[in-house]
Write a structure and sequence with these properties.
alpha/beta, Rossmann fold, Helicase, Ruva Protein, domain 3, 11 helices, binds S-adenosylmethionine
C-alpha cells in the first residue's frame, strides 16, 4: 500500500479522535488513501485550482486533494468532532487548507475561493442532490466552479447522466445536461466505505458549459419538466394541459408528438417548448 503522505493512517486518526460515524450526518468514510488520491486525480490537474470540499470528515479525500497538488482546499464540515483531525492536516500543508465548521447549505463560499475552482466531494447522501441542484442553478451563469467531481449513491449518479428512454431519465438529467457535460468516472462497492452503506456508489464528473446547451429560460424549463415528469407515464398533452389550451399546438411547434411521454423527449425539444412560452414575468 503506497502512502500519499506521512500523516497517520486514517484508522488511527479515527481512533485517536474518537470519530465514531454518525448516520444522521451521512458519515461513510473512505479510509484507503490510494482511492482518495484516485478520486482527486479524476478531477484533472489541481495544481492551479482552488478546491471546495464538502464534508471532509476525518480528511481522507482532503489528503488526496492536497497530495495531488491542489493550490488550496476549502473544506466545510458540519461535525465539530472532525476539526482536530483536520487541523493536523492543515499543519502538514501550511497555508493550503482552510476549514469552516458549518453547514454547506448555509455557508457562502465566494469570499474564500479564487478562480478557477473545482468542487470535489464525497457528499453526505442526505444533502448531495440539493447541493448539486444549487450548484447547477445559480442566478448568473457561468457559476463559481469549473467542474464538479462528486460521489453519489449509484442510483443518483445514473439519474444525472441518463439519456431519453433510460429508466433513470428525468429532471436531474435535464438540469445537469443543460448546463454541463456529465459522466460517471468510478463506481465503488459498499465495502469501500467505513461503515459500509447499503448501496453502491459512483463518482460523477461534471464540466460546466460556457453557456447552456440550448437557449431557454431556466424557470420555464424547470416548470415544464416538473409538470412533465410528475406524471411521467402520461401523454404530454395531458400532463402539460395546465400550461394552457394551446398546449397541443405548442408541442407540435417544438416537434413533439402530443401523445409522447416525458421520458422520450430530448433536452433540445424541452428547450424548444420552453422558448415558446418566452420569458416569465
Ligand atoms: N470526505 C470524507 C470521506 O470521504 O471519508 C467523509 C465523507 S462522509 C460521506 C460525509 C461528510 O459530510 C461527513 O463528514 C459529515 O459530517 C459531513 N456533513 C454532513 N452534512 C453536512 C453539511 N450539511 N455540511 C457540511 N458537512 C456535512
Amino acid at each position: 500500500m503506497g502512502l500519499i503522505d506521512d500523516l497517520p493512517p486514517l484508522r488511527e486518526v479515527i481512533r485517536t479522535h474518537d470519530l465514531v460515524a454518525k448516520k444522521q450526518l451521512g458519515q461513510n468514510f473512505l479510509l484507503d488513501l490510494n482511492l482518495t488520491a484516485r478520486i482527486a486525480r479524476s478531477a484533472g490537474d489541481l495544481t492551479k485550482c482552488d478546491v471546495l470540499e464538502v464534508g471532509p470528515g476525518p480528511g481522507g479525500l482532503t489528503r488526496g486533494l492536497l497530495a495531488e497538488g491542489a493550490r488550496k482546499v476549502l473544506a466545510i464540515e458540519k461535525d465539530a468532532r472532525c476539526l482536530p483531525a483536520l487541523a493536523e492536516i492543515a499543519d502538514h500543508y501550511p497555508g493550503r487548507l482552510e476549514v469552516i465548521n458549518g453547514d454547506a447549505l448555509e455557508v457562502d463560499v465566494s469570499a474564500h475561493l479564487t478562480a478557477p475552482v473545482r468542487v470535489i466531494a464525497n457528499l453526505p447522501y442526505n444533502v448531495g442532490t440539493e447541493l448539486l441542484v444549487r450548484w447547477l442553478s445559480p442566478q448568473v451563469w457561468p457559476p463559481f466552479w469549473d467542474s464538479l467531481t462528486l460521489m453519489f449513491q449509484k442510483e443518483v449518479a445514473q439519474r444525472i447522466v441518463a439519456k431519453p428512454g433510460d429508466k433513470a431519465y428525468g429532471r436531474l438529467a435535464l438540469l445537469t445536461q443543460w448546463r454541463a457535460d456529465a459522466r460517471i468516472v468510478l463506481t465503488l462497492p459498499p465495502e469501500a466505505f467505513t461503515p459500509a452503506p447499503k448501496v453502491h456508489s459512483a463518482v460523477v464528473h461534471l464540466t460546466r458549459l460556457a453557456e447552456p446547451r440550448f437557449p431557454a429560460d431556466a424557470a420555464q424549463l424547470s416548470r415544464i419538466t416538473g409538470m412533465a415528469f410528475n406524471q411521467r407515464r402520461k401523454m404530454l398533452r395531458s400532463s402539460l394541459k395546465g400550461l394552457g389550451p394551446d398546449i397541443e399546438e405548442r408541442l407540435l411547434a417544438a416537434d413533439i408528438a402530443p401523445t409522447a411521454r416525458a421520458e422520450e423527449i430530448s433536452l433540445e425539444k424541452f428547450c424548444a417548448l420552453a422558448r415558446s412560452f418566452g420569458q416569465p414575468r
